[in-house]
Amino acid sequence: MEVSVSPLKPAETPDATDTPISALPRDILRGVIWSPLVLFTALVHVLCLPSVKRSLVGVVLLNIPLQWGTHLDLRIGAAEYGAIEGFDLSLTTVALCGLYVGWLFSERANNSSPRVIWNWPLTAYTVVVMMSVFVSSDPELSLFQIYLLLETLLLYFYFAGNIESRGDVIFVLRMLIVGALIESVYIVILAVVGHPFIFIRSLGMKSVIYFPLGSGGFIRPGGTIGSPNYAAAYLAITITLAIAVRQMDIPSSLRRLTIPTVASCAVALAATLSRGGWLELLISIAVLRGAGWLRGGVTRKTIFASIAALILVALCLYIPNPMSSRLLSDDNGSAHSRVPLMHLAFRVISAHPLLGVGANNFAAVMNDYAGSEFRHEWIYTVHNEFLLVCSETGLIGLGAYLWIFSSVIRRGWRLWRTGDALFAPLGIGVVGALIGFLSHMFVDIFSDAGLLQLTWLLVALIAVCERILRQERTRCAALPIIGVSKR
Q1: CA–CA gap between residue 461 and residue 430 (Å, rounded)
Q2: Side-chain half-sphere of 3: how many Cα atoms within 13 Å?
Q3: 216-234 pLDDT, tens digit each
Q4: What is the DSSP letter of 330?
């Protein structure tokens, strides 16, 4: 019998592409380690895109009136006495983080350093407020305000260093006007409906409305930005800016947008029933009109407009309505209640004239200085921004605070005198808005985020306009030199 013997087959070697089971955990571990870096790299790439930066800038600007966010480490009861009640975490905080990541990595990719435009008054005031924590009786309350000021200072640095062109300035103004239109419409809706919207509050935004304390009173809406007086100050500033925008050399779409914005903001301002806000707007418009008359003289159009405005004001006072009642009727001691608070602030200042009692600490110490006369008086943080700043940060802090406004008003007026078709109206608009705002500060306090962000943004816009004008003049001065040919 023949037996066939098969040749021995060589041993099969494993395929090189096969991965041993023991190597799988190492691959998973390597993926876990590298995946956050990959995600972070992708996120940085997205944040460096110009379209994303522009969108985040829009979020920051729209959130000035919306104030969509919350407070961390909330101190229950602090806001009831006028103090900042926690660390403010909002869409602005998140958007600023994204903007700074995109800014720093974009400059790194271009082998350049970020352009920082310093503003010494803002920096000085922030430093003074930070130092006041060492004299405060409640350091945590001071940290709340320090955090807010640092965030607002970062907002100034970003806008002052990254707005590059006239088109960027127009974009910022457009978003400010859109935000004012949205906020004013919401305030008017609150006034008509007569109650806050729980849905808006559930989203993390405010829905402020004050109900009358006695019979015959009127509701006072504040919207998402804050109290009625706070909303009135914001509306007066944005109305002034919108009127100034109409005088600029801008696209017609933006000019048309100012008409419904001014009308809606005026109705919302009337609905707040804030006498300080009404006076603020009158002073701001008077500054705008006075500057226009100094430059172009008094025309028939301006005379007729002024007469029509005076007639409208007279009718509002003569015809019975909530505004005339607010101005001419008994206010249940609202104005008188501010006087004892001013006396209380003077006591605090006399005891701590140089350094104050610490940022955001007036509410924490006011009972120590309240005498027996406050037994039947309303006790609250003093309704005067200048006295509040002086009480909490001393005369040094008040000097730095006034330096901010005097500096930007002086620079805004200088910008107005340039006669530039875009920047000159913006300069006088900022001057008028801030002068009116200063008048409102004598009877109210404005330490929350919304108006602080808006004010610091206006300071940044003035700095940007000055820088763009210098760059344009430098280029214009160099043109004849470039065109000279050698002979």
Answers
A1: 9
A2: 1
A3: 678 899 999 999 999 999 9
A4: -
